[in-house]
Amino acid sequence: MKTLNAARHGAAMLASTILVTTFAQAQEASAPPDSGLEEVIVTAQKREENAQDVPIAITALNADDLAAAGTTSTVDLKSVVPALNITTGVAGFGMPRLRGIGASGQGPGIENPVAVYIDDVYYGATFGNIQSLFDTAQVVVSKGPQGTLYGRNTTGGLIQIRTRDPEFDLAGKAQIGYGNYDTANGGFFLTGGLSDSVAMSVSAQYDNRDEGYGVNRFTGNEVMTSESWAGRVKLLWKIADDTDLRISLDSSGRDGADPTFRNFELNSLGQNVNTLIRNAGGDPDYDIYSDVDPELHARQSGGSVILEHDFDAFTFKSVTAYRDTSLSTYFDPDGTTLPRLRIFNDNFDEQFTQEIDLISTDDGAFKWTVGAFYMWNSAGQDPGRTTGLTTFGGNGYSDTITDVRLNSISGFAEGTYALTDATNVTAGIRYTNDEREFEAKTVTYNGNTNVTTTSPAIRDMRTFGDPSWKLSIDHRFSDQLMVYASYNRGFRSGTFVPQATPVIQLEPEEIDGYEVGLKSDLFDQHLRLNVAGYYYDQTNVQVQQVIAGVNNVYNADGAEIYGADADLILSVTDNFRLFGGVGWTDATYTDFTNAIISVPYPLPAGFAIPAGQTCLGTFGNPFAQLGGNCLIRGDASGNQLQNTPEMTGSFGGSLAIPTGIGTFTLAANYYYNDGFVATADERVAQDSYSLVDASVTWRDVNERMYVRLWGNNLAEEYYRSQLSATNSGDNGTPGAPRTYGLTLGVEF
């Protein structure tokens, strides 16, 4: 498999080189002079700055970049951001991992170490960060710990999404599209002034994949269908020349036949699931064989109020926000068509955040930012329900009802001092104090006796407090070259996992990150090349394990990560642009003696369960099991971190060809992932794979109407978006197959 993928990788790179050379030769004779690459303005340090002046490894993408790469949601960002890998959990939890730091754990109250901010609002729920990018103006990914200014659990990095703001001039866009798998979609964005001081924008979108990627061959119904929608209203009130008020409201939802877990080979009855699917006339890559059809229902809504006022020496900024997110899933985790185990999880997450920033506006030698952040959060399951033959013989249920609450307050300060016109020193510190408490109880109903039993509520509380900081120095050798070095301490708060038995208490995760990098704009700003190398020392890594259908998260003592990544943008002409990146990461556990190791059933001859242990989640005699896994504790020290490819790379470009009837734009992106392990024992892994996306767009001479023919995963590469080893067996869910379609749009 790896040899075949390597051949594909080489062939794709060769084809890309031939394509680039052909495009370049076609442009040489008639290409007009061009002005090179434009500055990219970001707010990675809370103030608007040229990204090339910020001593942080950053990948910044505007709406055109996203369209050229075929990136339509946050999950797709892995194809254009070096060292970023995004997997999903139960089809609804987004789990980004950046440079090896990320989420392998999921569940209510467990926040991502790669934080997501949308329009300055922190999205704490892991099942709330799978977002469409339809009305997005810019995505900025800041790599490495952001422990000072964005210190809310950002031990891995930061994904900032900015949606389009209201404008006073009338403007908008609308589009409709249709693709394979009977996929219909549409959306619009409209903005304009309501008065001289008030502007408003409205956006909405709808997407319906009516035909599933696969079929449940036991029930005959389609799976991996999806219907989603989203809407956003934003209001800008310019109260005065120095005062702005922004109000935003949004709502979105998704329904689908997910998650589609499927055992790779043997299920817990010893049946080969691939054979069962083939015998039923199905495709083992995308079809499942389950006694129930999976269901997923996701909802989220929220609002924010942002007030900014410019004083003479600084800007005051207040961000007040509220979010309400829910995810309900129903699925069969046991890998058989017997109703042995069925899981229904009704997850909720409610949060309120308030941030105050004071940002200096003086252009002198010292620039500073001080602020405070408050967050209240309530997250849990109401309920997490287990049914099936293992629960009162299939006549009853067992509910786990949980609520993890958070009160967090932090203060931070960061300053940059110009030692000379070319050299800056930046230092910052933040202190976070988190008070976490939980309440959990179990309600069981035995239908055989009509008896309902409610357990006494379990409660506990703990305070987590720690400082995090930043120290960096940068030096600009010329207008074209800047180098920097930094040391960052990141902090990710501890929490509880109350759905586990017994309740798990997660210790705080800390990381010391060391980084050196360079940022360059070469050849009259036609080539932008940014390179960074890093070393991370991580403690109390949070690791996930599903046992009997219930998600457990626990701590590994430590990990060590080092690597390098690079971003490149080349403006060949005003009409021809290339972009790409590469990431190399070596991430291993340094001390992980309590790892959960999976041993496939039937157990090998002579195998002995370690003294004092049992096979976690196994019902009955372990030595009588015909399939599934025996889960025991063991040593995974020295093993690779989950979901962390050693090598990733992407290469793409866009070529605009003006003609008498309009402009034709050819765009393509190639992504390579050399594979990764999915379990702490390295036994279950994803092989290397490549994705090729491309599009052809025609715009009329007035640049108002367009028609886009697009295709994603054109080579129809098979890969999995989630993998795991549970007591029911090795299982996972597939990524999207080849998709293609046509989009019609208008902009004004």
Question: Uncertain runs with pLDDT below 50, 5 residues or more?
Answer: 1-33
- Rg from Cα: 26 Å
State the total count of DSSP E strands. 44
Reported for the largest beta sheet, the result is: 22 strands, antiparallel, barrel
The end-to-end distance, rounded to whole angstroms, is 48 Å
What is the 3D form? globular
Total helical elements: 3
Q: Structural class, judged by helices and strands? A: mainly beta
| Helix content range | under 10%
Strand content: over 45%
Mean pLDDT: 91
Describe the structure in brief:
The protein is built from three helices and 44 strands.
Keywords:
single chain, 748 residues, mainly beta, 22-stranded antiparallel barrel, 44 strands, 58% strand, disordered N terminus
Record the SSE blueprint.
Elements: H1 2-28, E1 41-42, E2 49-50, E3 58-62, H2 63-68, E4 84-89, E5 93-98, E6 101-102, E7 114-118, E8 121-123, E9 136-143, E10 157-163, E11 171-179, E12 183-193, E13 198-209, E14 214-215, E15 222-223, E16 226-240, E17 243-256, E18 262-263, H3 273-279, E19 295-310, E20 314-331, E21 342-360, E22 366-387, E23 396-418, E24 423-446, E25 451-454, E26 458-478, E27 481-492, E28 495-497, E29 504-506, E30 509-522, E31 527-547, E32 550-573, E33 576-591, E34 595-600, E35 629-634, E36 647-659, E37 662-673, E38 676-677, E39 685-686, E40 689-699, E41 705-712, E42 720-726, E43 729-734, E44 739-747
Parallel strand pairs: 7-10
Antiparallel strand pairs: 1-2, 3-9, 4-5, 5-6, 7-8, 9-10, 11-12, 11-44, 12-13, 13-16, 14-15, 16-17, 17-19, 18-43, 19-20, 20-21, 21-22, 22-23, 23-24, 24-25, 24-26, 26-27, 27-30, 28-29, 30-31, 31-32, 32-33, 33-36, 34-35, 36-37, 37-40, 38-39, 40-41, 41-44, 42-43
